[in-house]
Hints:
This protein has 6 helices and 10 strands. It has helices at residues 59-70, 89-98, 110-122, 161-173, 180-187, 217-229; strands at residues 21-26, 30-37, 40-47, 79-82, 101-106, 130-132, 148-152, 206-210, 234-238, 241-244.
Amino acid sequence: MDIALFSPSSLFDEDEDCSSAVGSGESENYVERKHAFPGMDLLIREFSFHQLNANLLWPGTFAFTEWLVQHRYYLEGRRIIELGSGTGALAIFLRKSFEVDITTSDYDDVEIEENIGYNCRANGLSALPHVRHSWGELFPRPNPDWDLVIASDILLYVKQYPNLIKTLMFLLKSYKPTDSKSNLMESRELHFASGSGGSNGLPKPAFLMSWRRRIGREDEALFFSGCEDAGLKVEHLGSRVYCIS
């Protein structure tokens, strides 16, 4: 498993703030910061260091948040799971803003799950449903019923691409709608790129991903080509947001 042994701020331009924080409180193991999201501030506790967690909120989280606010119809009526939730900040924002049905997910690690729960409560929410899962391993729920998978800035570790794609393949290909009515509706939402998409323009199921981190283009391309080699369809929706189905 690849472990981050560098400062996340090293991946950004010197004039690009890596936290959007407007205040902070620190402890030995954590740092709490108030982050400005569209229409609200969220108090988010981050690990001072965690070998499995990227520790900080990345610029891509805020960029993806703004994009989703502008395209909120992509979220309407969907059951959502977020991969690589980290602190849970994006899921917390979406739940508070749009009351979406959302589940968080990250490495199979109890500390990460507990920290996401802490951040939920710190922002006036009950703990969101959470799935502990390390990419590529057996998924703990054999019949996934999430019709939208989301993630932001999760392509840093190139060696993990095959494992990430394996998890995506399971979530997208093993998806089971909860009832026959939804199955009928979803059949009308396939092949959106060919002009026959559904009311919100995304097929069910789909993976909606924002990618803002700086890595080499050749490394980045390995993920998208790996998806296509696995039989998945990749479409760029603009603003570094991609739909994979």
